[in-house]
């Protein structure tokens, strides 16, 4: 009888950087689609840190049961700056290679993608990236897993805050995460009907913000919400003072912070996660490496991680201008 010499195909999955809702849906789709394609599948706990520390375990179909709707990441995550050191990265990669795992799928943001590039360039491991970050700050793709859920969380906060500030004729400055990117702030402000949005991509005239908020009250508004992007938080004190002086009303400040990262992922994030996972496994099956998945005009595509990292995020100036007009 002929000996079966066929090699077992193996792939590992990890989540890295700030968690984002929809990561679990992505892990689940990666695991199950890869199993369906005949792979042995492994999970790496705690992102690149777990790869360094050998936190690698076999995953089965049931390992991802009941997580499609869950926020956070069942694989856990971490930030691992030491992964930039080649000897640390090589030791981490060796932990996969010694198990015969020659493929890795990394779900994370641009910091994680720099790890993808380093692994691709410097080791024998095939690696594919999937964009998972609430920030939606990666220029090569229209969206990232977790962005839609984070925006919905901000909108929910806006609506709840509106109840209390309307009851008290107050003003709220709502600070939202997003690093140096104003995408969460802008989209949430438009969807939530905020009176003003302040983003890093546009210069801010604080006197004009205060005058605009005052004009709103003069026209009969009973409350006002200003969405302030993380990249502009240095303006908080000046905004508070000037808006208070201009309106004579109490101005409160609240930072939503990590609230934005958790919660039940939206349908949009879950479907995006599944589609991106499917493309990633297909690339693994084709023996590809150093590529990342994106979405443009509703179509899933892949490109090199180098191209993706070089692409600066565009800003939707038209939406910003529309927000200025319809929120007055
Ligand atoms: O990248 C996601 C994000 O939530 C950013 O919006 C924020 O600036 C950062 O991570 C916070 O990181 P950490 O949880 O490590 O403090």
Task: Give your account of this protein's structure.
The protein contains eleven helices and eleven strands. With 328 residues, the chain is an alpha/beta fold. Strand 1 (9-15), helix 1 (23-36) and strand 2 form a beta-alpha-beta unit. Helix 1 (23-36) packs parallel to helix 9, helix 5 crosses helix 6 (183-192) and helix 7 runs parallel beside helix 8 (236-247). The longest helix is centred in the middle third of the chain and has 21 residues, at 147-167. The radius of gyration is 22 Å and the shape is elongated. The termini are far apart. The model has no long low-confidence stretch (mean pLDDT 97). It binds 6-O-phosphono-beta-D-fructofuranose. 6-O-phosphono-beta-D-fructofuranose (F6P) binds at residues 18, 79, 109, 133-135, 177-179, 230, 261.
């Amino acid at each position: 009888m002929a000996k079966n010499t066929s090699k077992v195909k193996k792939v590992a999955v990890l989540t890295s950087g700030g968690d984002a809702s929809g990561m679990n849906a992505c892990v689940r789709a990666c695991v199950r689609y890869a199993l369906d394609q005949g792979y042995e599948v492994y999970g790496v706990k705690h992102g690149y840190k777990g790869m360094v520390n050998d936190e690698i375990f076999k995953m089965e179909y049931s390992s991802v049961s009941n997580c499609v709707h869950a926020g956070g990441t069942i694989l856990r995550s971490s930030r691992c700056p030491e992964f930039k050191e080649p000897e640390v990265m090589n030791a981490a990669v060796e932990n996969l290679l010694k198990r015969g795992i020659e493929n890795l799928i990394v779900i994370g943001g641009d910091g994680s993608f720099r790890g993808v590039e380093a692994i691709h360039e410097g080791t024998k491991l095939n690696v594919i990236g999937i964009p998972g970050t609430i920030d939606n700050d990666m220029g090569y793709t229209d969206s990232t897993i977790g962005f839609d859920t984070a925006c919905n969380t901000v909108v929910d906060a806006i609506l709840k805050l509106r109840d209390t500030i309307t009851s008290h004729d107050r003003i709220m400055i709502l600070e939202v995460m997003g690093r140096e990117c104003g995408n969460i702030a802008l989209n949430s402000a438009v969807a939530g009907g905020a009176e003003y949005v302040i983003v890093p991509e546009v210069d801010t005239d604080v006197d004009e913000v205060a005058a605009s908020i005052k004009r709103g009250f003069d026209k009969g508004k009973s409350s006002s919400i200003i969405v302030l992007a993380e990249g502009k938080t240095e303006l908080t004190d000046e905004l508070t003072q000037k808006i208070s002086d201009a309106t004579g009303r109490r101005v409160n400040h609240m930072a939503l912070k990590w609230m934005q990262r958790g919660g039940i992922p939206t349908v949009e994030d879950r479907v995006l996660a599944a589609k991106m996972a499917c493309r990633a496994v297909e690339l693994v099956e084709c023996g590809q490496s150093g590529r990342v998945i994106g979405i443009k005009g509703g179509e899933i595509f892949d490109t090199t991680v180098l191209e993706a990292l070089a692409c600066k995020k565009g800003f939707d100036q038209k939406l910003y201008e529309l927000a200025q007009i319809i929120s007055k």
